[in-house]
């Protein structure tokens, strides 16, 4: 809606009450606490892993399709799958290996400063998640 349309609308309806005007000035959502990995609360094995890639894509991968988890350094973890690899870069990512091995991770989420609160200093942080097809991995 253009500014002219808003001005015309306000002439017809009058100004917004203060509580409605304040609601429009707030961000659309509050920041949420960040967790690199969403772990199943019951500790049960989950059949599938949801991966939220840094480019906005989302995949659901069966744990049965994950052949290997590799960490070449604390800031890198890769999940080798039947068709390619999920490659993660961040901080303290080796801490995720036990839960991935036990198949209790429900989701992997990259940190987004516009959406998430700052993580704890000791918590794992995924800066980037991408998928590499067989020939690219």
- How much helicity do the residues have? 10-25%
The run of helices and strands is: HHEEEEEEHEE
Q: Tell me, what's the shape? A: globular
- The chain-level structural class is alpha+beta
Beta-strand residue percentage: 35-45%
Radius of gyration: 21 Å
Strand tally: 8
- What's the end-to-end separation, in Å? 47 Å
Largest sheet: 4 strands, mixed
Q: Helix segment count?
A: 3
As residue ranges, the low-confidence spans are none
> Taking strands numbered 1, 2, ... along the chain, how are they ordered across the largest sheet?
1-7-2-3
- Average pLDDT score: 85
Identify the notable features of this structure and list them briefly.
137 residues, four-stranded antiparallel beta sheet, 8 strands, four-stranded mixed beta sheet, single chain, alpha+beta, 3 helices
Topology, element by element:
Blueprint: H1 3-13, H2 18-25, E1 37-39, E2 48-52, E3 58-62, E4 66-73, E5 76-81, E6 84-91, H3 97-101, E7 105-108, E8 125-133
Parallel strand pairs: 2-7
Antiparallel strand pairs: 1-7, 2-3, 4-5, 5-6, 6-8
């Amino acid at each position: 809606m253009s500014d002219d349309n808003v001005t015309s609308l306000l002439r017809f309806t009058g100004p917004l009450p203060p509580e409605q005007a304040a609601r429009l000035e707030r961000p659309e959502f509050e920041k949420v606490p960040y967790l690199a990995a969403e772990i199943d609360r019951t500790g049960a094995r989950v059949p599938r892993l949801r991966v939220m890639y840094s480019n906005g894509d989302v995949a659901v991968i069966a744990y049965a399709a994950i052949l290997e988890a590799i960490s070449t350094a604390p800031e890198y973890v890769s999940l080798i799958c039947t068709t390619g690899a999920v490659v993660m870069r961040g901080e303290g990512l080796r801490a995720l290996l036990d839960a991935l091995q036990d198949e209790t991770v429900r989701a992997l989420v990259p940190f987004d400063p516009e959406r998430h609160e700052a993580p704890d200093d000791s918590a794992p942080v995924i800066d980037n998640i991408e998928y590499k097809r067989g020939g690219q991995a």
